[in-house]
TrEMBL record:
One of its GO terms (cellular component) is cytoplasm. This is Leucine-rich repeat-containing protein 20 isoform X2. Keywords: Leucine-rich repeat, Repeat. Pfam families: LRR_8 (PF13855).
Length: 154
């Protein structure tokens, strides 16, 4: 078990270092067995966090994201959180004014994350395979929203 944990930690460190060294706008921490977003990553990425436009945290075991995550990566355009254990988003997600796509499929949402309705650039929202009971979806501003694909339920 310790060996597998060590391998997962090494994988995270390698991927974060690759992002910093290459100046990439992408941070891929998919399939890293994360139960939370590692605090040390904020320090390592502090000089490049504004340049990161895509983060993939798919297929981990995340139960929540902090407000610090949302404020640190405020320039995100895509956020992939599918295949985790998330049931809500922090209110600070409404600060992701450049976010165009968010994948929240295969999580544990029971309520529609209404903070997302305030995001002016959001085009794609995937909520497939959650536990959301659709009664009345909030109205989203702007005419471009009417053609936005919304995937709910299993």
């Amino acid at each position: 078990m310790l060996r597998k944990m060590g391998e997962a930690v090494a994988r995270v460190a390698r991927r974060v270092n690759e992002t910093v060294e290459s100046g990439s706008d992408t941070l891929d921490l998919a399939d890293c067995k994360l139960v939370s977003f590692p605090i040390c990553i904020y320090k390592v990425l502090r000089n490049v966090s504004d340049q990161i436009h895509l983060i993939t945290l798919a297929n981990n075991e995340l139960k929540s994201l902090t407000s610090k995550f949302m404020t640190t990566f405020s320039q995100l355009r895509e956020l992939h959180l599918e295949g985790n254990c998330l049931y809500r988003l922090p209110n600070e997600v409404s600060g992701l004014q450049h976010l165009r796509a968010i994948d929240l499929s295969r999580n544990q949402f029971r309520d529609f994350p209404e903070q997302l309705t305030t995001l002016p650039e959001l085009e794609t929202l995937n909520l497939e395979e959650n536990e959301i009971v659709v009664q009345l979806l909030p109205v989203t501003p702007g005419p471009h929203r009417t053609e936005c694909p919304l995937q709910l339920g299993a």
